[in-house]
What we know:
Helices cover about 5% and strands about 30% of the residues. It has a five-stranded antiparallel beta sheet. The chain has one domain. The chain has one helix spanning about 50-55; strands at about 10, 20, 35-40, 45-50, 55-60. The longest helix is centred in the C-terminal third of the chain and has 4 residues, at about 50-55.
Amino acid sequence: MSDYVKGHVKHDPVTGDVAVRTQFSEEDPQLAPMAWLVSTTNMGARHATTESVAGWDDLFIPNG
């Protein structure tokens, strides 16, 4: 299980993309790919796994 909670925000300093942690459970294999909602400046929005955004900078960490 991840240490991230709903509302956590991460930033990719290379691309400028921003990711927000969703309510979707990482424990469910069907929902895990939607754990994060990523907003981009040139390609719209997409979903992502925790693994794919884990190395990004933390912008906001909600209080549990």
